[in-house]
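Structure ticket #2291
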Amino acid sequence: MPEVGLFIPCYVDQSYPQVGLAAVRLLQRHGVKLHYPRDQTCCGQPMANSGCDEETRPLAERFLRIFGRYEHVVAPSGSCVSMVRNHYARFLEGKPGFDHLRRNTFELCEYLVDVLGVERAGGRFPHRVGLHQSCHGLRELRLAQGSERVVAPFDKVRQLLASLDGITLVDLTRQDECCGFGGTFAVNEEAVSCMMGRDRIADHERAGAEVITGTDASCLMHLEGLIRRDRRPVKVMHVAELLAGAEG
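Resolution: structure written out below.
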């Protein structure tokens, strides 16, 4: 079994530590030998998205030094994994170990399905669940096919969820629409961001979802904030929490 370096993104570390703990339980359940480097920091995505390349570069280099020694790197966040795989090249191209890091960094569900070959997550979750497809995971990591692509249907996250006993995965009107978070977009364009988020919540509610789940704590934080503000009766859970907490 490969040794895995566990990367815990900033949002998870600071606001949703239970997601990181759930990811640990889930990976250990499937026999993974985990390492958690205590000197890890932000991957640099917020700075890169704002055009601050010189502030991003030392974080990318640090990430390579810390995680480049592991056979695989896994994170419960599609956007952070996409940062490493799709956007680190301009900072790290040609550096020793970067090609290995880029090829072997995985989102949590992607790792379970593509590397470990997990077909059934195991457990029971007798609720109606709506799956939010985060933009980075969908369009940059290809965790699912995306409605704009004419390819055979696939959905790695939904595949794991569907294997839980008792679960009902609801069908949304727009399966892969953005929630409106977009990092600093939610700050700079607050009104538009909130309208987009409320559209997504309404779609889940129309479908009868009791729980909204997804792979990115940042998107779920945005949706949960709007749900709490509007006092909507919908619960939000990261997919790691849902899978790890499913009744055995």
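Closing remark: The longest strand covers residues 128-132.
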